[in-house]
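Example for tutorial group B:
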């Protein structure tokens, strides 16, 4: 629904006018959707659909890095709406608090470090 409504076009034009890095934009869109829904799958698929119009508006965008950035953004802040959160909690016999302190923290670190490495990679590609 978000993609069909033209949100991607609006975000694409805003990104061009704000001169934000398309890689950072892809990561941010996926991260916001992940935090809102709790689903990495939904964040990846919807984020990609929203960011696709940016490819046509900004010359020289590396599509592979956008895919990686979208995937990295979709990993941030796993919480109680995420099925993986509950799998980790049950499998490792942790409390909700312990799962937040370990799984959510690890997923967030992975997301941010992934973004940093993707941005560094964009400097050489």
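The residue assignment follows.
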């Amino acid at each position: 629904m978000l993609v069909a409504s033209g949100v991607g076009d609006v975000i694409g034009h805003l990104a061009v006018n704000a001169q934000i890095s398309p890689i950072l934009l892809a990561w941010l869109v996926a991260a916001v959707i992940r935090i809102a829904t709790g689903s990495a799958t939904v964040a990846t698929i919807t984020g990609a659909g929203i960011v696709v119009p940016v490819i046509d508006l900004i010359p020289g965008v590396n599509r592979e890095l956008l895919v990686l950035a979208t995937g990295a953004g979709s990993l941030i802040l796993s919480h109680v709406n995420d099925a993986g959160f509950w799998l980790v909690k049950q499998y490792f016999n942790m409390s909700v608090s312990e799962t937040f302190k370990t799984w959510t923290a690890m997923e967030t670190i992975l997301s941010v470090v992934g973004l940093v490495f993707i941005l560094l990679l964009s400097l050489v590609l």
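The mean pLDDT is 88. Compare this with the pattern of hydrophobic and polar residues in the output above.
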